[in-house]
Amino acid sequence: MKKTIQGLLTGALLLAGTTPALANAPGGGYEGITAMYYGIIAVILGYGAYDIFFKSE
Prior knowledge:
Layout (H helix, E strand, L loop, with lengths): L1 H21 L8 H24 L3
């Protein structure tokens, strides 16, 4: 169970690390907030997947 949570968090951090490259508009100045936005969404989606598929009752 701890490895599952660790895997989800690692995946979320990797996704958050790659988002500035995916959403970097030249001259926009929103790179930081965009990375935070996508990172938060990744964490929420990761927790939802954990809650649905991996959480034991």
